[in-house]
Specification:
Distance between the termini: 134 Å
Radius of gyration: 39 Å
Low-confidence stretches: none
Order of helices and strands: HHHHEEHHHEEEEEH
Shape: rod-shaped
Oligomer: single chain
Strand content: 5-15%
Mean pLDDT: 86
Helix content: 40-55%
Largest sheet: 3 strands, mixed
Number of helices: 8
Number of domains: 2
Length: 238
């Protein structure tokens, strides 16, 4: 690859940075998502290796600068898993001030149904803000790695540690992987007596005691009645 860092002039870079205003508003809550998202378009705009992964498919004539040729459509080939990593890092990001996910507005479908194909289709073709059609194509042919763009990305749960940035990981609201694991339910210790359910044993013992008391009382009362009857007969005979 070319050793030149960028093919954009300072004013072009500044202009591109300004174009990220809406994306920063919608994705900036999660630094790694926003970083990954920017890398997709920064490389498309300013990479010195455009000839590897970028192809102009349609030209036009400038109305602002007569006689000048304009780009009307391009093919931008990226690694299949690069697109997937960008989507994964951004999937749970919430739009500031609400409970709506940012991808609901950036994918053309609900965030949990967004696929990398739909995401890139919306960013490059369906988005009314794109200046011309950007056909984002995927490749997973590792033997032809020089023919598509790939870039290191950060998980939403990872801090950004790079030459130019030092950012913390995304918060729990915008990244499920950043949330602390839910402690497992600890079952209540079972109350047992002699390896049997403790309350069952207590109930049986209670019933036995009640029955014993009942029979003992019945026997005692019967005994007393017989004793009194015998005593009465004995007194009468005298």
């Amino acid at each position: 690859p070319n050793s030149t860092y960028t093919c954009c002039a300072p004013d072009q870079i500044a202009n591109m940075a300004n174009q990220f205003g809406m994306a920063k508003l919608m994705l900036g809550r999660c630094p790694s998502c926003y970083y990954n998202f920017r890398s997709l378009f920064c490389s498309m705009t300013c990479s010195p290796d455009h000839n590897r992964f970028l192809a102009i498919t349609d030209y036009g004539t400038s109305t602002l600068y007569p006689g000048k040729t304009t780009v009307e459509a391009i093919n931008y080939t990226i690694a299949d898993d690069f697109a997937e990593r960008i989507l994964t890092s951004c999937r749970d990001v919430l739009y500031p001030g609400g409970n709506q996910h940012s991808l609901d507005s950036m994918c053309g479908r609900p965030y949990d149904q967004c696929t990398k194909e739909a995401f890139m289709q919306y960013l490059g073709i369906d988005n009314p803000q794109v200046p011309f059609p950007i056909h984002i194509l995927f490749s997973n042919n590792t033997s032809e790695a020089e023919s598509y763009y790939n870039q290191t990305t950060f998980l939403c749960s990872e801090p950004i540690l790079s030459r130019y940035e030092n950012k913390t990981a995304c918060g729990c609201l915008d990244c499920q992987k950043s949330c602390s694991p839910t402690p497992p339910d600890v079952p209540d210790k079972k109350f047992t007596i002699w390896n049997l359910d403790g309350w069952f044993v207590i109930a049986i013992v209670g019933i036995v005691l009640l029955l014993s008391t009942f029979f003992l009382s019945t026997f005692t009362i019967s005994k007393l009645r017989k004793s009194r009857a015998t005593e009465y007969r004995f007194t009468g005979e005298i």
